[in-house]
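User: quick one - fold this with 2'-deoxycytidine-5'-monophosphate bound?
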Amino acid sequence: MAAPLIIAIDGPSGVGKSTLARGLAVHLAIPYVDTGAMYRAVGVLARAAGIDLDDDDGCGRLAATLAFDFLDPPPPGRLRVDGRPMEGEIRTPAAAEAASRCSRHPSVRAALVAAQRRLAADHGAVLEGRDIGTVVFPAAAVKLFVTADARERARRRWHDLQGRGITVNLDDLAQTEAARDLRDTTRAHAPLFPATDAVRIDSTHMGAAEVLNRALAEVARWRDADR
Ligand code: DC
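Assistant: Sure. Structure tokens for the protein plus 2'-deoxycytidine-5'-monophosphate:
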């Protein structure tokens, strides 16, 4: 039997990874695993439980007890933790910050990487995050590394938050996002960097449909090569 299709999408915040991943999942009828949502959930739940986000053991113990799943489409990629849907509360700038801080801990990463592999085991998946093509699925069929200019990324994040009813100052957001990206790319464990065999997509001047078509062309190329 053919191995399930795994598509790895990595890149910094605000490049359009989620839109692309959701589009691919719908188009190819495979699950969408939003790994950033999982780190966000750990950050939010750790804070709520009074766990210090710098406490590797405390955050790791919490992460290991949580059961993650993604609600079947529609809509694809909605996270459930211990059976409870988590959406609005994990999409705030504070949740992004908490996720970035607790994602530095090896114990948290070990628990979530294991959960991510389980989630994709049966039916394959499109997974998006920071370490999918380098750590979680280094043998993924298709690996994409998406980038965009920093200002454009901040503008997209701002737009996204605005759509959720969260108003922030664009310059402040650009600064906090830059600090988060720096932390995510310079941390000791599984930092963000492109896998050597990842296809790079600069989405700065591309619309969502164009990015999706570019990614679908890579899937088609892989399918042709696999025959
Ligand atoms: O993609 P996002 O903005 O929802 O991710 C939130 C944070 O989670 C991000 O700043 C770093 C962390 N993260 C990670 O370390 N590894 C992943 N695979 C996904 C996210």
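One thing worth noting: The two ends are 14 Å apart (CA to CA).
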